Amino acid sequence: MRISACLITRDEARFLPGCLRSLRDAADEIVVVDTGSRDDTVSIARDFGCTVLHHPWNDDYAAARNVGLHAAGGDWIVVIDADERLMGGGEMRALAAEAGPETGGFLIEREDVVRHPATGRTERYPIGMVRLFRRDPRIRYVGRVHERPGDTIRAAGYEIRSTHRLRLTHLVSARPDEELAAKQRRYLALLDAEIAARPGDPWPRYYRAKTVWYLGGHAQADAELAALAADPRHPGPQRASAHAMRAALAVHSGRPAEALAHVEASLAAFAFQSLAHFLRGEALLALGRFDEAAEAYGRVRESMDPRVVTEWIPGDLYLPAETRAYKLGSCRLAAGDAPAALAHFRHGMAANPADAACWFGAAHVALAGGDPVLGGRLLDEASARDPGWRTPRALRARLAAGEDAGTVDPADLASPAPV
Amino acid sequence: MPIDSGEPAAAAADLNAALDALAAELRLTGPIPAPEQQAFAAFYHS
Q1: Is the dihedral of CA A261, B44, A170, A117 positive or negative?
Q2: Interface contact B38, partner A, CB < 8 A
Q3: Is B19 in the A-facing interface, judged by CB distances under 8 Å?
Q4: Is A289 strand, coil or helix?
Q5: pLDDT, tens only, A181-226
Q6: Among candidates A365, A369, A363, which has minimal Cα distance to A391?
Q7: Claim: this prediction has a pTM higher than 0.90
Q8: Which residues of B touch A252 (CB under 8 A)?
Q9: What ipTM describes this predicted complex?
Q10: Which of B14, B15, B22 is the best residue to mutate to test the A interface, defined by the most A CB atoms within 10 Å of its own CB?
Q11: pLDDT digits 0-9 by tens, A111-162
């Protein structure tokens, strides 16, 4: 059982070595399709023993991906980007070997490491993506941008299964905000071209709305999502995603009550998802309905459902244990049960000691409980784990400036919701 | 990126003991504002 890894690159010298190292011992060959790098990307790939192909960039990510797929010689293909890292790669041959003939591809979890521009806070969100599939000339990428192979895998008569044996980490937060915004501006033009070429395809319309949101066009994004959600030509999962994004946008824009209606519509369109439950939790937390919020967060899966998945909603997400603990602790604290909140935060600290959020939550409890010394130490711990997160640092500076104050007024602890 | 704290085990145990004491002595009454929430940014995801 041979595995080919396929990448497309352009000026990825900074990220490529880590990516290639994560493929060592996992792939039998690595095919790099370079679309015009001016940095050391190509020499790095060659030095690593990759097969390097050149493909002039023609505003079509799927076309570039398919050059690599065409050249690959393995029985199965894993697709990865330079700013991603593969974990569990040693499992890949066994996974492919054990797949039944009906299985054409695997949905694997990619953990997006994102940083919020308003607070500098880093957080991890896992989502599912099809990245491992058979080498079969019928399986090809589709889409000038946000390209995907899933439709052609199913069209070839295969099923798609999910697996936890492989994972990807996507280092979004390692890129500057300006670079991420510039990428979204480029995507907008590609999405417009894609919509013109494939007017019945819901995917580019969905992604266009998200890009418009990213670039600040909230009302326009909501209108585009509403049209997508109401279009009866589209399958349930796509309509569910559009409803869920409307809910996310409503929460983000300070309209949590409206978000709840979108959550219900999303679940009615496609119930097999976690995203709507998460957004229900977010809306209820904003509305001060803390017990109900905790119940909603409790219904979000920690990771992909291990059952066979032939359909899933784009952007469905999961809550790692520490993120769920932070949400539940926040609900309990706001509901007036500080001991239960502290227990949740401590659970999160134990579940993933490297994550900052629950340390910050525990600091919050300590400060409100009248222990500024412990609160300060916990804030330091949070900052050590997420050096870019400005809020713990700011609170620590205030503590240092007013140590004589003894306790912190709980009202001062509330941070404005980033918009 | 989150990083490992790399703190000595003794300091971690000390912190744990302080948290145990905090949990045992916590006398808060009434709701406390929830700590800062990450505004879910769907557009960060593909």
Answers
A1: negative
A2: yes
A3: yes
A4: coil
A5: 899 999 999 999 999 999 989 999 999 999 999 898 999 999 999 9
A6: A363
A7: no
A8: 39-41
A9: 0.79
A10: B22
A11: 989 888 888 898 888 888 999 999 999 999 999 999 999 889 999 999 999 8
